[in-house]
Specification:
Distance between the termini: 9 Å
Strand order of the largest sheet: 1-2-3-4-5-6-7-8
Largest sheet: 8 strands, parallel, barrel
CATH architecture: Alpha-Beta Barrel
Helix content: 40-55%
Number of domains: 1
Shape: globular
CATH class: Alpha Beta
């Protein structure tokens, strides 16, 4: 298994500087990670640094709360795509999910998918805030809206990715779309367990350590 190809090398801290993003991109190229994931203000820089490397530029939409206007998410998505983002990780309307307003949740996602115009959309449902039934309904909303991935967490909530949640996702979405585990993934063992449970992408800021430990074991 090429573990590096699963990893979105992530830096979403508000204090991240230009120098930090350049270093992130250098590391991603060196290890041939799947993507870097940066805040929207750094999409231009990341796309420039990664041009020709095979590493994708991912950014976040409606992040980290998801509690903004759908129109604002759509505008963010369009701007990110125009600046050469290859993947968009959007946060659902969590409050609508908690209230059982699944048409609202689905339409919010659908409009971002439309604005992405073929660019991959990963939908963060923030599992730590949802019941298992809500997680299942959220996965179905992601499928119905036409997105390409369902994703566990922002990394800014009270909990992150768990093997149990990845298994639950897999039960609902099967092989129809990708599954991204993110939030609190720090060790090789965690990464391997999440992949074994069905994750097809891992969002982590510990990618170098995880990939390095994997290389030592291979």
């Amino acid at each position: 298994m090429n573990l590096a190809s699963y990893i979105d090398h992530t830096l979403l801290k508000p204090s991240a500087t230009v120098e930090d993003i350049i270093q992130l991109c250098r590391e991603a190229e060196q290890h041939q990670f799947a993507a870097v994931c940066v805040n929207p203000v750094y999409v231009d820089l990341a796309a420039h640094c990664l041009a020709g490397t095979g590493v994708k530029t991912a950014t976040v939409i409606g992040f980290p709360l998801g509690a903004t206007f759908t129109e604002a998410k759509v505008a963010e998505a369009k701007e990110a795509v125009s600046r050469k983002a290859n993947e968009l990780d959007m946060v659902i309307n969590i409050g609508a999910a908690k209230a059982g307003m699944w048409e609202v949740v689905t339409e919010d996602i659908r409009q971002v998918v439309a604005a992405a115009d073929g660019v991959t959309v990963k939908v963060i449902i923030e599992t730590c805030l949802l019941t298992d039934d809500e997680k299942r309904r959220a996965c179905q909303a992601v499928l119905d809206a036409g997105a390409q991935f369902v994703k566990t967490s922002t990394g800014f909530g009270p909990g992150g990715a768990t093997v149990e949640d990845i298994r639950l996702f897999k039960q609902v979405v099967g092989d129809k779309i990708g599954i991204k585990a993110s939030g609190g993934i720090r060790t090789l063992e965690q990464a391997q367990e999440l992949i074994a449970a069905g994750a097809t992408r891992l969002g982590t800021s510990a990618g170098i350590e995880i990939a390095g430990n994997h290389s030592k074991k291979v």
